[in-house]
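User: Good morning. I'm curious how iron/sulfur cluster would be positioned relative to this chain. Could you predict the structure with it bound?
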Amino acid sequence: MNVSESERLSSGLDQLGYEKVKDADDADIVILNSCVVRQGAEDKVTSRLDSLKGHKRKNPDATIALMGCMVGPRTEKLQERFPHVEYFMRPQEFQSILDFAAERQGLSCDSDLALLVPEAPKVSTFVPIMQGCDEFCTFCIVPYRRGREKSRDLLELVHECEKLVERGVLEVTLLGQIVDRYGMDLDAPTDLADLLEQVNDIPGIERIRFLTSHPRDMSQNIIDAVASLENVCENINIPFQSGNDDVLERMRRPYNMENYLKLIENIRGTVEGVSLSTDVIVGFCGETDREFEDTLEILKKVQFDVVHTSVYSNRPGTIASRKLEDDVPLETKILRKKKIEEVQEQISLKRNQEYLGRTVEILVEREIRGKWEGRTRTNKLVHFEDQKTNWLGKMVNIDIYDAGSWSLRGSLPGVMASTNDTKPDKSEISLTNITDIA
Ligand code: SF4
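Assistant: Good morning! Here's the predicted structure, ligand included:
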């Protein structure tokens, strides 16, 4: 969501004649888009904000703005702590910096933020289809920062996707905090399955993904849409957070593991070749060794393709921070995360090895040190080498000859693999997928 909002703001600034610079010292306006979903993320923003004090001293005319989830409804404390920051903007509320940027250029800015479609989008682009969340899981700060659930108009979204396709986009990822709840707040009855169907019909669109699902809200309509619509990718992220029902209750997650496993069985039975990823939190308030073991058991049982593991960190203002004790020692949390990663590394390897000897179609998204990188419909990262053609933004078939836990390697059909071909390490994996393996 943050990446998408940054792209949209960037597009607005481009339209006002601004150019991106690499170094903050060369910038007239510096905007930090913040995430505070975990303490580590907040620490990064804080440290960057502190380092910008020097920038402000050297460039007193420069303007510094902070946007995103670090900015709540009240900004007095932030203003006190970061007096060098002029603008504080809540998620998706960045009109004030656009107004300022326009005025600085002697222009006026009346852009509708929702309609700020990126001018030069990446071939695979995010499209926020709704904002906010009404769920209030006890550990989560998002509803306090992003507000209540609000879906965007279906036709507006279809029009936006059409525009993106005209600008070279082949793949869209529809975003929502609980994306399966799309449309439930709109007057005209509609849902995510309707939207998927409409976007699927846009000429030129090759792939559609959606993020993030909630086990309670993933409906049969949505599962059937994934199974039947040609351009919707067979790839679903469905967080379970903990494999223990008592922990789920403390988290205020309204499902139990029996229902979750039935849902997984249904998805696998309906969507042929589907790949599944999930999100897990370790070390939540009161999590015992036995409760943690239940999470490991679920991972072994379900055999997800990818698991995103977070160490629980207390977020002030959440229900957990007010009512529960953050009593699992940090060393235990880290050990549990490591344990999950060890187990999952083997499972991911096994799942990726199923691709050996197969030819897969990938969308090439970037080049790193002479190697091309793309993803399959099932979201598997694939690397291949070719010096002759520029494959960026193209769909290409690749023969897979090697599989690791994080990615696959292959070659163009009929091309022998180079003997110098080395395995990409985690640092070479694209940002999208770093998120996937984090
Ligand atoms: S559903 Fe997701 S965004 Fe909403 S409160 Fe729960 S974890 Fe946070």
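The longest strand covers residues 359-368. Residues 2-112 form a domain with the Rossmann fold fold (CATH 3.40.50).
Let me know if you'd like a different ligand tried.
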